[in-house]
Write a structure and sequence with these properties.
single chain, 2 domains, Rossmann fold, six-stranded parallel β-sheet, five-stranded parallel β-sheet, alpha/beta, globular, 12 helices
Length: about 325
């Protein structure tokens, strides 16, 4: 049987389309994902790799894997894949479009509420025992009411639209920016959106034109006290500029599910109490992870049976 590596350990029912069709090699149980060195050691035997977006698939890996036919990301993004190198090598790359949209939108609102209502600060205050000493004090923990505050959504794909639906339920006016200009009256050029929004929520892919989309110049356009949410990719935000704007009081807070140099966090952001972090879990729910892994397994199963994958992100001119 052909060998398929999944870089972490998952239940068999998440890989059901491959059962009986391939020999499945799983990552370590209860621990971290396979290291790059471990993947390279296994590479010569592999027909397929299913990874969680953590694996850089470049010319080095492809050269070490002469039998590789497909790499599947359990993710929407695929900036970890060298598309030109995959095309040249005749290897398919696939992702999981749409699978994480609802979960990522839920998490966006979770981060917004945590920042706007100072949830993590208040939790630490209670756990420290200080509330028991101080007693109830109205005022010091007052946060931002979301109703009536404008949310500017940058990237109006499936996730952006799902965020809009949820934000509307809080009574938040919606404006958005997208790579393609829209006739929708809610559409704004980026600079206009930044100047108008009380909350800026980022949901764009990492591309050359989106790297440091928020930087010293564009952050300066934002309202004083505005909140930034990054549920996209870390390098979409210049974290040094963001840290400076938060420290000066120009921005009111930030919710960060990703980091520019992930998993390292900019020390200037760690120093700010009005920043809430999560470890790149925005799309991660029990339901979405299973759906995504099943999607990847179906794609690999198609290629195992000499058919094109269902969700290709590239078009190899030739196949291995």
């Amino acid at each position: 049987m052909k060998k398929v590596l999944i870089t972490n350990h998952v239940p068999d029912d998440h890989l059901e389309p491959l059962l009986g069709l391939a020999e499945i090699i799983k990552g370590p149980s209860g621990g971290p994902m396979c290291s790059r060195a471990e993947v390279l050691a296994l590479a010569p035997e592999l027909f397929a790799i299913i990874n969680q977006h953590e694996l850089t698939v470049d010319r080095e890996l492809l050269a070490a894997a002469p039998n590789l036919r497909i790499v599947a990301n359990v993710a929407i993004g695929y900036n970890n894949l060298d598309i030109a190198a995959l095309d040249e090598a005749g290897v398919w790359g696939v992702n999981c479009p749409g699978v994480f949209a609802e979960s990522a939108a839920d998490h966006t609102l979770a981060l917004l509420l945590a920042v706007a209502r100072r949830v993590t600060e208040a939790d630490a205050y209670v756990r420290s025992g200080q509330w028991a000493k101080d007693g109830f004090q109205p005022g010091p923990w007052d946060g931002m009411l979301l109703g009536g505050k404008t949310i500017g959504i940058v990237g109006f794909g499936q996730i952006g639209r799902a965020v809009a639906k949820r934000a509307e339920a809080f009574g938040m006016p919606i404006i958005f920016h997208d790579a393609t200009r829209h006739d929708d009256p809610r559409y704004r050029p980026l600079e206009a959106l930044l100047a108008e929004a009380d909350v800026v929520s980022l949901h764009v892919p990492l591309l050359p034109e989106t790297r440091h989309l928020l930087n010293e110049r564009t952050i300066a356009l934002m309202k004083r006290g505005a909140i930034v949410l990054n549920l996209a990719r870390g390098p979409v935000v210049d974290e040094s500029a963001l840290a400076t704007a938060l420290a000066s009081g120009h921005l009111g807070g930030a919710g960060m599910d990703v980091a520019e140099n992930e998993p390292k966090i900019h020390p200037g952001l760690l120093a700010q109490k009005n920043v809430v972090f999560t470890p790149h879990i925005g799309g991660g729910t029990i339901e979405s992870r299973k759906r995504a892994r099943l999607t990847c397994a179906r794609n690999v199963a198609e290629v195992l049976q000499s058919r094109p994958p269902l969700n290709p992100v590239n078009r190899p001119i030739r196949y291995r």
